[in-house]
Amino acid sequence: MIKNRIIIATLILLLSVVIATVFLMFKNNDEKVLTTKNHKEFYFETSTEDELEENLENQLNDIDFSELDNILNNLDAEKTNIFGGSSFLEIVTKFINAEDSDYYDNFLTYAFSILFDDIIELIPYFAIIIAMCITYSLISQISSEKNKSLGNLIHIICFSSVAVIVLKIVLQLMNDVSTTIASVESQMEIIFPIILTLMTAVGSSVTASTFQPLLVILTSGITKLFVTILVPIFIFSVVFGVIGNLSNNVRLDKFSKFFSSLFNWIVGIVFTIFIAFLTLHGLTVSSIDSISFKTAKYAIKSYVPVLGSYLSDGISVIIASSVLIKNAVGVAGLLLLFATIFAPVIKIVIVILLLKLCAAILEPLCEKQIHEFLYSIAKSLNMLTVCLIAVGLMYLISVSLLMCCSNIL
Amino acid sequence: MSDISRWIISISGMVLIGVLIEVVLPDGKMSKLLKSIVGIFSVLIIILPLKNFDFNSLNFSNISEFVIDEKFVEERESEKIILVEKEVERNLELNGYKYVSVKILGDYSGSELQITNVFVDIANIVLIDENLNIDKYTNIMAIIKASLNVSEEHVIFYE
Lengths: 409, 159
Hints:
The structure holds 2 protein chains of 2 kinds. Chain A is mainly α. Helices cover about 90% and strands about 0% of the residues of chain A.
């Protein structure tokens, strides 16, 4: 028994020694591996960071941002303050380095300033409209009983005066919208080639060539459609809104509704088709470049053992620089878009709300035609907002998709 | 735009005539008849310009494509190729062949480097003692083949 116990004890001791030795061996190996790996990682981290910085600088210097600088310089000082920089290169560099900036604070300050500026600018016009209508209401109360023709004449004079004031504001808004769409179009014409060039440089030539026709259609075709067809439709809608309420004999308000409906259908169809094609292309094509890049990276590592690893790291740095610049240009472009369309959209919204408020105030005071006219103009003005938001949204979705694609590392 | 303003002015004019009739004429059969005539003319004025509308003006076929900055793309390609060349030269140096210049002719527009030719300049080559008695062409060729995965006919030596 004792003999057996001694044998078992010896075996356990031997087993413990073996396990301890093996454990120590593995531990030493692990330590060795970890040490080399750490050293290698350290070596790569420091050198890669320098390489990346150098590559970024080279590539940023090779891109021509002068046209975007011109757009930036043409913006108001308030809008330029949002970016916290005077040149586009400076803004892109800030985004790449993820530097802290007061974009949101600046944007909020800008938003509040234009909000109050617009309200202060527009309130006198609406005060005049309300004053005129109250005066008309008082005069018509006196004259209506005695002379119907005089009452009609006063109504036409009052209505025409209100219409002139409202149409002046509407024409100003229409010009603002046309200018803004033209500005967004020129931004697209500059930003899209830069992003497509960077995508091609990254190796996503398939994605770039697939997106190009759609982006060209958006830049030239859809914006042209908005300016040449949808803005005139808005004019027709406003004109029929005015004329339809001018006289009880010639009723044309159904024409206004027809143009409003036509506008909605055109915007709906164009927007849906464009977004559907863009999203489908984005989903299918982006994976092709990513897969081919990963296959090539794997191939270079496995077929060319020593060199492959260094090479794929080096090339990854070049590609990473392009991807970083592409995304930073995209974000800066979107910020520029917000700065461009925010002010007109806010102004239109304020006008719509003030028109509706005016219509509500005048409803118990005036004849049906005046407050219905104000309300119909407010409804027509929604078209201008839709024009701006639709163009902005299509641009935003396109840039966002381009930013999501080609991140092939 | 001038056509649109003319159209709008004519519609407004017609409606104003209608308003004038309403104001001036007393209520009666004549007034009703004139109002109907003004209504018919207003609708005609609205509809008639549509037949003269030039639909060709909405031609979107003359849309130009975006111009990709080929110079930028080529520079990135050449950067990648230079990186490969340097790595091959480094690899040769590690194997005892110093100052060998490697130039790669190829396309790196996609994700893979498509090598057309590899030019190896050995005019300034410096050999370490171990390599003195070995056929340098065969050895360099073997290193380049292993490094770039190219066949022999694409590697051109010159001194």
